[in-house]
Amino acid sequence: MNAVIFPLFVLSAALATLAAPWALALPWLAWVFKPLATILVIVHAAQRGEAGSLERRALVAGLVFSLVGDVALLWPQQGFVPGLVAFLIAHLAYLVALTRRVPLAGWWPAFAGYAVVAGGILALLWPGVPAALRVPVGVYVVCLASMAAQVAVVWWRHRGTAFAHRAGWAAVGGALFVFSDAMIAVDRFAQPLPAASLFILPAYWVAQWLIAGWLAPRHTP
Predict the structure, then answer these.
(1) Helix, strand or coil for residue 105?
(2) d(CA 171, CA 155)
(3) Verdict on whether the full-model pTM lies above 0.85
(4) In this structure, is residue 219 part of a structural domain?
(5) Is 17 inside a domain boundary?
(6) CA 127 to chain centre
(7) Are the C-beta atoms of residues 28 and 198 closer than 8 Å to each other?
(8) How many structural domains are present in the chain?
(9) Dihedral angle, C-alpha 31, 32, 36, 38, nearest 10 °
(10) 105 lies in which domain range?
(11) 136 touches 84 (CB < 8 A)
């Protein structure tokens, strides 16, 4: 089924990216294809893992909340806080999934490294973040960095196993998620970035696809 889903996902993500004013200037493309791209990632994830397992249910729940966030952010101003909350819940759901096999912070260097990254991001953004948003933005950055670090923990704990390849790519996805959200925050709170969606949106969807694929396909023993 992925032979159909993946090309549709790539096409949807590309059209949503090109909807921006600097490209096609067709906002309706974003309204159609931005949610569709994430829905296709959900379908991708739904084919993986043990049916009914908490690991799989939490992963899919995280993607569903990501979809809610994607829709909310179609309104960049009014939807920012609802989108932030939706993605915060998504990262917490991912953490539930990612701690079924290995304990939280089971490899401290990953958390130490992402703590430095999160601190750097907050230090850069802090002067431009409105006072009312500082707590939610701070909490979000901590949760995002923890999710990315935990994916790296999963990879580290499965080195040398059949699971290592998928876990490694998922760890790349976690890093891309941090990059994508950091660029959104820089564009919003520090310095407007030209053609920002050209690299923010592709990094985001590659991240989601890789994280969604860390569980084995159901036909794999």
Answers:
(1) coil
(2) 7
(3) yes
(4) no
(5) yes
(6) 25
(7) no
(8) 1
(9) -10
(10) 2-212
(11) yes
